[in-house]
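Table S2 (text version). Query chain:
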Amino acid sequence: MRVVVVGQGYVGLPLAIRAAEVGHQVTGYDVDARRVKSLTAGESYVEDVSSERLTRALERGTYTPSELARDCGGFDVAVVTVPTPLQDGAPDLRYIEESAHTLARFLRPGATVVLESTTYPGTTEELFGPILEDGSGLTAGVDFHLGYSPERIDPGNTVWGFQQTPKVVSGVDAASLKAVESFYAQLVDKTVPVRSPKEAELAKLLENTFRHVNIALVNEIAMFARHLDIDVWQAIEAASSKPFGFMKFTPGPGVGGHCLPIDPSYLSWRVQRELGQSFRFVELANDINSHMPEYVARRVMDALNTKRRSVNGSKVLLLGLAYKKNTGDARESPAVRVAQLLLDMGAKVRAADPHVVEGIKVDSRLVRVEPTRKELTAADVVVLLTDHDSFDYAMVTEHASFVLDCRNRLSGPSVEVL
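Corresponding C-alpha cell output:
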C-alpha cells in the first residue's frame, strides 16, 4: 500500500520504517527541512531507528522522506504522529489541524486515516474527522475509514519496541476499525481493538496519568523520608518484593518527555471543560512533579551550605540532560529546569550528556563538557540527573568530592541520594 506518515519524530519515524520494512511504499512527511535532509542522507536522530535500518529502507526505495505536501498524494493509509503541546495550560492542536487540512487535499474514497497523536477524548471524531470531511467533500465511515491508535513508543526500550508493544486500535465504525486493525496487524505482534476512538484516546491518557500520579506519590514520599531519616530506596525495594498488588515506581528530579508533563493535563482540561469539575489527582501530581527540580536545587544549596559555600560562584556539574536514561530525548526534561534554577542562583553550571546532541533549548550560560576526571574533581557538587549507562560511575565516585544522586545509581561516602 501507499502509506504516508505525517511527522518524523520519536513516534513517526519508527512507524514509517517498520511499515517500509514489511513492504509498503512509505512517505515520511515532515515540515522540518533539517529532519528531511538528515533522513535523506541516512542519518537517524531517533535511537529506536538505527542509521543502518534507515539506509536499508532508503536503498530499497520503500521509504522516502519529504517536506513537500504534494508527496502525500495518492495514499491508501495516512497516519498522523505530530506533537500536541500545551499552550497556557490548554491543548494546542494546531499541528493536528494542519495535518488534517493537508491530508484532506489528497483524501480519496476507500482510504484510511489514523490519528496517533496524544489528545483528549473526542478529538478524532469532533475535530480531526470534520476537517478531513470539509476539505475533501467525503464522509468518514461512508467514503473513507477513520480511526485512532495511541502511540506507545518508549524511547530507548530494547525489550518493548514498536513491533513488540500491543497496539490499541479503533475506528469510527466497524469498517474503519477493520481497516485500521488490518494495517497495524502487519506491523505489530498484537492489536487490541476497542469500541470507538474515545476509548482509545482515554486509554492513552489513563496509561500516562497512572504513571504520573504514582511517580508523584514516590517523589513526595522521598522528600518526607529524608526528614524522617528513612532510606526510601530500600523501602521501595522491600515493597517491590510483594508479588501482587504493588508496582514499583522510583523518585527522580521530575518528569519529562511529552507524556507525563503534558498528557494528564489533556484529560484534566477535558474534564473541567465538559463537566465543570477538577481532576484533583492530576492537579496534585502536576504540582508535586513540576516542583521536583526546585527540590533538587535546594538540595544542592543545602550541600554547599554544609561546606560553608554559597551557590553563587560554586561549580556544579550536571550528569545528564535527557529526561530518561540512554536516550537523547530532552523534551520537557527536568534536568534543563534544574540547570536553569542553579544558573539563576549564580552557580557556574556545566553539563555532560553524550546522548543529547541537538534540539535542546537551554540557557547560553550552561557549558557543555565531557565528564572527565578534571571536570569531576573541579566541581563543588556533581548532580546525577539522568543515569545513562555510558557514564563511568566508578570514576565519578572516585573523583567527585560530593555527589547528589537523583537516580540511586551510586554509593560511597561522598554520595547523597535524593
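Notes on Table S2: DSSP finds 14 helices and 16 strands in the chain. The CA atoms of residues 159 and 165 lie 9 Å apart.
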